[in-house]
Structure formats: C-alpha cells, structure tokens
Amino acid sequence: MKVLLVGEGAREHAIADAICRSGLLERFYAVMRYRNPGIFRLVKQHGGEVMLGNSRDPETVAEAVRRFGVDLVVVGPEEPLFRGVANVVEERCGVPCVGARREVAEVEMSKAYMRRLMWKYKIPGRLRFKAFRNLEDAIRYIEEYAESVAIKPARQAGGKGVKVIADLQAYLTSEKRQVKMHHAKQVYEKYMAGYTDIEDRILIEERVEGPEYTVQCLTDGQTVLAFPAVQDNKNAFEMDIGPETGGMGSIAGPGYALPFLTEEEVKKSAEIIQQVVEALHKETGVRYKGVIAGQMMLTPLWGPTIIEFYARFGDPEAVNVLPILKTDFLELCELLVDERLAKAKLEFEEVATVVKCIAPKGYPERRDLAAGHPAAVEEEKIRAKGCQVFYGSLDLQDDGTMITKGSRLAEILAKAPTIPEASEIAEQAVPHVYLTDGWGVFHRSDIGSRALLQRRIEQAALVRGVYQYRLQKGLIGITIDWIPGRGKIVYEA
User: Fold this and answer.
1) Nearest Cα to Cα of residue 187 among 176, 200, 206, 168
2) Rounded to the nearest 5 degrees, what angle is found at the Cα of 382, between the Cα atoms of 378 and 385?
3) Domains held by the chain: number
C-alpha cells in the first residue's frame, strides 16, 4: 500500500512511525509545510517523496495524491479537515482518506455547533452555553448576569483564547464583570480575527471544575474504538501555572484508565463520543471516518463531561498511544475506510507513558522570538536513556541543520511500569535537546511526577464523591442558580 501523510508536527511524526511499522506499507509519502526531520527520514527510508507546500490546502493535497499515485491518505492536523481535504481526496481523486469530511469535522471547528448538537440529541456531559455573533450582544449578556463562566472563541483557534472566570465573591462582581468584558473583546478582535468560516464569534459556557483528560478514538461512522485515556498538561509552567499552550506534556496508562480515573468513567466517556458520532450522521448524512477525540473533564455536574471535541489525534496525546499500539495501524485504516472497524481489535503494550515537550523560550505568546534558532537533537543519547524522540516544529535545511519554527520543537516519550517512573526516565533525556545558538528552551519537569499525580487523584476523588451522590439522587445534569431579582432558576438536563 502506498500512503500519503498530511501534516508536519510531532503528532504527524508519531502517525508516520505507526504507518511505517505496518507490514502493509509499500511506499510512504508526505505533504508538509516544512521538512519535519523525523517524517522526512521515514519517507526516505520507505522509498517515497516529500512535497513541500500548504498542507492545509485541498488542491495541494490533491496534487500530491495524483503525483504519487497513492492508495490511502491519512490526515494529521485539524485545519486541512476544516478546509475539506478529505472531501476533495475522496470525491475528486477517488482515494480513501482517514480523516473526517468537512461536514462532520465541524464538531471540532465550531464549538457552538458541538454544543447545539449535544443539546439537540440530549447527549450526556453537555454544558449550558450562549453563542454570540457580535461583541455587543456578548457584552450585554455579561452585564446582565453575574456567573462563573468560560469565555472562548466559538471556533477552534489552536487552543488559544480560553479564559475561565470564577465569579464567586459578591464584593468582586463588578471587577469580574470588567475582566469578562475585556476578554470577550479580545476573543472577538484578536483570537477570531482571522476566521470567517463560521458565523458565531464568542462562546460563553458555564464554568465547571475537575481533572481533564482525553479519550481518542478511531471510527468508521458506526463503530467507535477507544484508545487509552491520556491527560495533557496545557499550562506552560510547573504546577499548572502560566499561559495555555498546545500542550507541554502528557501521561497515560498503564491500561486504558489513568490513576485518577476509573474504567467505568473511561467507558462512559467513550459512550458519549459514540453518541456524538451517531448524532453527526443523523445531522449530516455523512459517515465519520477518521479520528474523533473527546477533551473531557470529570465534573460534579455529570461525571464525564465534554469540554470540546477534536477531529484528529491530540498533540502530544498521540505520542502517548501510537508508539505502544501493537495492532497494525494500516490494517486498522483499511477496516475503517471499508466500514468494517467492528472486526478490529486494539492491542497496546501494558505500560505507562509520559511525554515531555521541549519548547524555545518565547513560546507560546512570542513565537516570533521562539523561531529561527538552530537546534540539536542527540537521538543516540536519547535512545540510550530508553526514550524516543518525536520531532515537532523544526525545519530541516539542505545542509542538515534544523531551525525552530516557533512552537514546541520536540517531544520525548518514555515508557515504564508506572507514570512516575516514566517521568523520571524522560527527565534524563530532556537535556539532549537544545539550541546551539545559546537561546533557551524550557519544559515541565513536574509532568508525571508523584506530587502532581497525587494532586490529580485527590481532585478526582472529591469530584467523584459529588457526582456519584447526584447520580444516586437523580440530580445528574441538573443545575440550580440563584439570580438576584429573579430567584431560583432550575436548569434540567
């Protein structure tokens, strides 16, 4: 089988690695915006070619499909899916694609669409929300209601622009209202400025608390196969402080659950994703063929609760699960495109995994400062520590040097019987990724540590006690608010 991969990040390097371990692979090709060193090497090792171009553009991808004569296309990032790459590849080129078509990828692209879908079909784990198409209406809403909320771009904007504001102290209500209005203005003018493909601009959701995690799945539109749950750590600095990033590292295993989750909670999360896949088919008439992931939170309101959906593997979450996948990845892809995924069986190594991302200083808020630096990745020394490296935002030059593009430059994967052991192993490999011009890099040493893991376990135990009590009393999904001047308001699930 000749396979074309679309995309150029560490997630795509992990997908490329899984493809190249398959016994079905004949030749491997890639279309990328820049030369990811890891993907480029795998392409050359497996007799293929790289096309450099706009990997988000359907016409560019279609040109690569025709030029290379491939049998299958696998799409890594979300933006190509939002722009209809899967539609063009299948309809114009007649080649199957592992990647959601534009109609169903909207479950990630538009957070407002996703919320409306969940409420329409009464899918568990849904949150109350308001979506606004102009700033004036959003400001008017904020002025009228004093609530604890999350204010977000209504579109997927690369994980940027989300702010959660707890409005709990009456004496600070006025100040909190000013913060909300300021952030709503930022969302409208800054984070949504470059997007014209959806009408909604600002999303305001009820605020919930609890540990977050991701359940990534393969689906053929009927069967949903869940991968082990993963927890990503979004904040830039130790102990969950600092600006949100695309993810500074992640933990998984051993097995399908995490130390702070039960198997039943992971199962319920997968059932929610299954219901959403079925709802998307009812809404659009299109079978969802690709990856769908639920970014979940364990909350007192529902237990497993949807924060947002991904129409692709997460980054770095893909790096936790794909390297330990024992099932042939291309066999899974074949079954997926033929709508026979029910015949598949997922098998993974029984290990814990920890991923640590290394980024240039300046990331995430000053990517201009983080870009343009020569990097060194000492792969042999990393392997000697028992780790694997996946290349991210690095551009391989003709002379062999690697230049940073401004985002996370590499991700270190370590495996061990437990998460804290894997974390300690990964730490030993981190110093072997650096910039040769003296510009600094940073990572989070606490990801997977015993202290941070214990914090997650304690938080989950508190939440679990509340949502299980609510479950026993028939209160799951029901919210009671007190609004001055209006009294008690009960919101039914």
Assistant:
1) 200
2) 150
3) 4
